Amino acid sequence: METKHIPAQHQDAMPADEHKMDPAPDYAPRHPGVGKLKGKVALITGGDSGIGRAVSVLYAREGAKIAIAYLEEDKDAEKTKKLVEDEGSEAILIPGDLGKKANCDKAVQATIDAYGQLDILVNNGAQQWLDEDFANLDEDKIDRMMASNIKAYLHTTQAALPHLKEGASIINTSSVNAFAGMGSLITYSMTRGASLAFSRSLAGNLADKGIRVNSVAPGPIWTPFIPGTMPAEQVEDFGSGTPMGRAGQPWEVATAYLFFASSDGSYYTGQTLHPNGGMVVGA
């Protein structure tokens, strides 16, 4: 795959905006759909951009109808909605802070109101900041990350469970940092470790109901997280330190979410896939 140079850049926002990134992240699926998700409905949090956008478009190509929950990035969300529709599917947009339980309930109910069912829940929305001084971590940022990266996953899943039938799939985004850790992302790594433990524990709880729960632990992926988190000079050539020598693109991660959502992953629960460019970590 051609490696594009990533120039220095920064956005003073979290989440940042995909439409301002240079180069634009690559979300486009590489293969024709074969109906792996035909007749399914997926709720994807953080579905407006980055990995969430790539998953939304890939799921649509495979036949699913999409509900996109996101914080406030309307321009990115509208583009993702159009991309889903260009695949011949349908999408609804659900803005709101999922760090608040009422908005998690609202997102699930909006999905049911629109489509009458829910088959796939992708808990993907999150926030991230650098922790440069552990002794003086910002309490507000800690609280925001805990709400977005942990509580939102728990409460959205709680709201979804009454609607999920046997054969349904829950997929939670974790991170390579849940396994390898990162000194400059202590709080974020802690929350991604929580989403990993949540996936493994919930998988055991729901196995007898025929609901599978898995996680995806991406490495350095070129998404709005990066210019929204790092100083401009650290963004330049982001991902070049991996064994593959480049950052991953969102489309390369979305395929893991498709595997877990479809019948291809029917014998997988409590497991994790690692699209991380060759960074070897524990299972």
Structure described in brief:
This protein is an alpha/beta fold and 283 residues long. Helix content is 38%, strand content 11%.
Describe the structure.
Belongs to the short-chain dehydrogenases/reductases (SDR) family. Its EC number is 1.-.-.-. It comes from Jannaschia donghaensis. With 283 residues, the chain is of the alpha/beta class. It has one domain: 3-Layer(aba) Sandwich (Rossmann fold). The chain is built from nine helices and seven strands; from the N terminus they run E-H-E-H-E-H-E-H-E-H-H-E-H-H-H-E. A seven-stranded parallel sheet has the order 3-2-1-4-5-6-7, with helices on both faces. Strand 1 (41-45), helix 1 (50-61) and strand 2 form a beta-alpha-beta unit. Helix 4 packs parallel to helix 6. The longest helix is centred in the middle third of the chain and has 22 residues, at 139-160. The radius of gyration is 17 Å and the shape is globular. 49% of the residues are buried.
